Amino acid sequence: MRVVLAEDSVLLRAGLTKLLTDGGFEVVAAVPDADQLLAAVDAHRPDVVVIDVRMPPTFTDEGIRAALVIRRQHPKIAVCVLSQYVEERYATDLLSVDTSGMGYLLKDRVAHVSDFLDALRRVAAGGTALDPEVISQLLVRHDDPMRRLTPREQDVLKLMAEGRSNGGITEALKVSHSAVEKYVSNIFAKLDLPPTDADHRRVLAVLKYLGT
Question: So what's the pLDDT on residue 141?
């Protein structure tokens, strides 16, 4: 089974290459960034691609964006994404397209070599492999938007529900005004309240809070 591996860490890339080779896979290319990944996939047409979520140059979502390109341009190539943490938005982007031949695993799972190799074989065969922690957090996100908020963001929303302004929240929590603005912005994003001319997001956020 032929694999293209994309991981920016030299040590982890070498370790994964050896792990996969010892597990019976043929690593046809091991690259450090998304551009080289896409080129390698075009050149080798592997059975499965193993991709780190965060790669150069910004170390944000390069791996996910590359995975989506591969899924679109080469739908028969399986994709397994590795992440240090559960990136809910990225996981949702991937899984909303098609779950066949798709894996999303935390890097800690690689430490369980047999489990990781079994998951990769399942993905390469057209199946799905999702880390239990990914499933747990996606279910929480789906069932209760309020549980996406951190404890501090919940404190801010509670004060918003009491009618406090950002200035009032700043005084109550003894934090900076910019910190409060960031908390409020995060609350809007996590409660799926995009900017709009028609509705007041602060009111809508409070209504969601009161409805829980």
Answer: 53
User: Residue 41's beta-bridge partner residues?
Assistant: none
CATH, residue 179: 1.10.10.10
* AA letter at 141: R
pLDDT reported for residue 137: 64
Q: How far, CA to CA in Å, does 37 sit from each of 66, 117, 204?
A: 8, 21, 43
The letter for the amino acid at 22 is: D
Residue 198 has pLDDT above 60, yes or no: no
Helix pair 88-95, 62-73: axis angle to 10 deg: 0
Tell me the pLDDT of the chain averaged across its residues.
87
Q: For the domain that residue 94 is a member of, what is the CATH number?
A: 3.40.50.2300
pTM: 0.65
How is the beta sheet containing 2-6 ordered, strand by strand? 26-31, 2-6, 48-52, 78-83, 102-106, 128-130
- Crossing angle of helices 151-161 and 201-210, rounded to 10°: 100
pLDDT number for residue 108: 82
Separation CA 160–CA 176 (nearest Å): 16
Higher pLDDT, 145 or 26: 26
Query: How far apart are alpha carbons 140 and 83 in whole angstroms?
Result: 19
B/e letters for 137-166, b = 16+ CB within 10 Å, e = fewer, are bbeebeeeebebbeeebebbbebbeeebeb
The last residue of a domain, from among 123, 141, 159:
141
User: Residue 13 has which token pair?
Assistant: 């890339």
